[in-house]
Design brief:
The complex is a heterodimer of chains A (249) and B (244). Chain A is α/β, with parallel strands linked by helices and 249 residues long. Chain A contains eight helices and seven strands. Chain A has helices at residues 17-28, 40-52, 67-81, 104-132, 153-173, 191-194, 199-207, 221-228, and strands at 8-11, 32-37, 56-61, 86-89, 135-140, 178-185, 239-242. Chain A has a seven-stranded parallel sheet, with helices on both faces. Chain B is α/β, with parallel strands linked by helices. The chains are: A alpha/beta (249), B alpha/beta (244).
């Protein structure tokens, strides 16, 4: 009996990075998966891999900045899978630059994908979970929701908002059997971190981690599955920091 | 293949509560266990339970207030089991009181068991783990290491110390392959919760219940396992939402 046998799980941003690794791990533990992402080709590959390994997944291509797509997503999942046991709000974007260098459009994009979407999907999922008698939400925040760094002010503020949204929603729904937690990854080898960066940047980033290396997506997925599982039955409103020691000092 | 097949695990405070639940869980996942605690009868029963279920556990009775015992414990474990993969500093005591009315002896007991003993065990364990090429330490801190409550002044201070000790040691040894993390349980149904605690309302959480020891052990095993390979210096809060 796997931990997620028969459970209906939605993962956003599942076409790459932490989302794809998480989807594969859920698929291997018996979940019935709905995945979304903005890259249809990469998403179809992840789905084919999971199903090829005996999993049960489907992928919907869509853009979370499109309110029609976003606001209809939970209903589509419930229509397809019959219920929603786990919501992983994982999709995230970043744009680098100091506050005066970021355009209004950059800011709006980051805040829409990283925080407004978490709010909107949770807003739609909570009544479904309450009706079912419970559920789990796992949000992908960041170590940069707890401490800041230079040149990514919008990303930091969006992730700080995810941390506090997680805590606030957890308090509101703790007595309804809905657990809401977040993971705070440190630097992880994903497109978001490494896309378009040179070797020097990656070496410097690794050196700044007490463990001396950048994490891999498959080192984050187990934390998400733990929080989504019954093993975390007394956890809600918690931040699980998986950062190689970055925020310890 | 279980997560802890063949790995050696030392657990303090294993005769009851979170320690006993974690020992059972490690035992069920293949660990070779050294258990210690202050109650010889209870501890022997926990070890017998684990061994009856097909596990591999032994128990040494001892008092962590005894400097000779705590400073020899890691060597004794290595002598028995050949190596030390996981150290779970779990033993803890609580004494109710304010700074005014708490006897110094109570303060010293709480600080020694909760903070000095983990320091002493880490001090002995880290060279062993370094020589092996790695290892994991999990410390039992508390939600009361991050926020305070009334009439638990020494306990709060000791647990705050455990959290920062965890972070500091994690930084020092991150590149030695040694991961050091802590769990921060909220109110859990153990003898410690009721010790000197005349106010059962302390058990209230946003989940509207206190936790069970079986709900804390999985977090300990997660941190001790390779599933947490990129985690060090972290505090995992398992408190039913109390500190949210």
């Amino acid at each position: 009996m796997a931990r997620f046998d028969g459970k209906a799980v939605l993962v956003t941003g599942a076409n790459s990075g932490i989302g794809a690794a998480t989807a594969r791990a859920f698929g291997a533990e018996g979940a019935r998966l709905m995945m979304t992402g903005f890259d249809a080709e990469a998403g179809a590959e992840v789905m084919a891999e999971i199903n090829g390994a005996g999993g049960d997944s489907r992928f919907i291509h869509g853009d979370l900045t499109d309110p029609m797509f976003r606001d209809g997503l939970i209903d589509r999942v419930v229509a397809e899978l019959g219920r929603l046991d786990v919501l992983c709000n994982n999709a995230g974007v970043n744009r680098r630059g100091q506050v005066q260098e970021l355009s209004h459009e950059d800011y709006r994009l980051i805040m829409t994908v990283n925080i407004e979407t978490v709010f909107a999907l949770s807003r739609a999922a909570i009544p479904v979970m309450r009706e079912q008698g419970g559920g789990a939400i796992v949000n992908t925040a960041s170590e940069l929701g707890e401490t800041a760094t230079a040149n990514i002010p919008a990303y930091c503020s969006s992730k700080g908002a995810v941390v506090q949204l997680t805590r606030a929603m957890a308090l509101e729904h703790a007595r309804e059997g809905i657990r809401i937690n977040a993971i705070c990854p440190g630097p992880v080898m994903t497109d978001l971190l490494a896309g378009g960066k040179d070797e020097a940047y990656l070496t410097q980033t690794a050196e700044a981690v007490p463990m001396g290396r950048i994490g891999e997506p498959h080192e984050i997925a187990p934390a998400i599955l733990f929080l989504a599982s019954d093993e975390a039955s007394f956890m809600t409103g918690a931040m699980m920091i998986v950062d190689g020691g970055v925020t310890a000092g | 293949m279980a997560r802890f097949d063949g790995r050696t695990v030392l657990i303090t405070g294993a005769n009851s509560g979170i320690g006993a639940a974690s020992a059972r869980a490690f035992g069920a996942e293949g660990a070779r266990l050294m258990l210690t605690g202050n109650d010889g009868e209870e501890g022997a029963a926990v070890a017998a339970d684990i061994n009856d279920a097909g596990g591999d556990a032994q128990f040494i009775q001892g008092d962590l207030m005894d400097r000779g015992f705590r400073e020899g414990l890691v060597d004794c474990t290595v002598a028995e089991l050949g190596r030390l993969d996981v150290l779970f500093n779990n033993a803890g005591v609580g004494h109710g009181g304010t700074v005014e009315d708490m006897p110094m002896a109570d303060y010293q007991l709480v600080m020694t068991v909760n903070l000095e003993a983990p320091f002493a065990l880490c001090r002995a364990a880290i060279p062993v783990m370094k020589a092996q090429g790695g290892g994991v330490i999990v410390n039992t801190a508390s939600e009361l290491g991050t926020v305070a409550t009334k009439r638990a002044v020494a306990y709060c201070a000791s647990k705050g110390g455990v959290i920062l000790m965890t972070r500091a040691m994690a930084l020092d040894h991150a590149r030695d392959g040694i991961r050091i993390n802590a769990i921060c349980p909220g109110p859990v149904d153990t003898a410690l919760l009721y010790d000197g605690n005349d106010d059962p309302v302390a058990g209230e959480t946003p989940m509207n219940r206190i936790g069970e020891v079986g709900e804390i052990a999985p977090a300990v095993l997660f941190l001790a396992s390779d599933d947490a390979s990129f985690m060090t210096g972290a505090t995992m809060i398992v408190d039913g939402g109390a500190t949210a």
